[in-house]
Amino acid sequence: xxxxxxxxxxxxxxxxxxxxxxxxxxxxxxxxxxxxxxxxxxxxxxxxxxxxxxxxxxxxxxxxxxxxxxxxxxxxxxxxxxxxxxxxxxxxxxxxxxxxxxxxxxxxxxxxxxxxxxxxxxxxxxxxxxxxxxxxxxxxxxxxxxxxxxxxxxxxxxxxxxxxxxxxxxxxxxxxxxxxxxxxxxxxxxxxxxxxxxxxxxxxxxxxxxxxxxxxxxxxxxxxxxxxxxxxxxxxxxxxxxxxxxxxxxxxxxxxxx
Length: 258
Prior knowledge:
By secondary structure, the chain is an alpha+beta fold.
């Protein structure tokens, strides 16, 4: 039996940041390190439509300043800012996912000069000048990583859309053989499914065929016309704890996990 399970792991710190430090000051440290030409690439208006143009596939024309265009100090400041928004585990997994591009490049037999699979093909872009008083946002994005944040009054008010993926899911050969970046998330997903009774499984497993791609892709429209899955309220306490996407209790009786 083939099983498809979508499990979202929340790794955003939800507004927790170092005492006596402001998110805007950390962001401006990065922006102030950029040259005038780099700043033109990195800074957009808060209302710019580009703020809604997110994706997690490899692309050659992403807006923003690429990691490959930054020096080591600028990269350190960029990842330092990302650490303010993610858990330590989230940042570590992000950096490991980026390095998988080198493995994909080797697996696909791409020439050395080819840049389609490149850890430098990740961008940082800001929407609005970081401030403690007015709304602003920023995005860190590349293949299998997309984090979009909005900040008001030095607090993270939104950390979505967000995406983390892993390709390969498990490294099958070479020096890193056996590496599985999202192993914990995978094991938690299967643990949840295996805990279901036959009646619960009949609702939770919506297809015997694995989809060829992420079901929702990067669509902004919520797919609610044909809701499928098991209701959160139909699971026991242990199962509810395992369904990480449904930890928010507000309206939980109408939420589904499937």
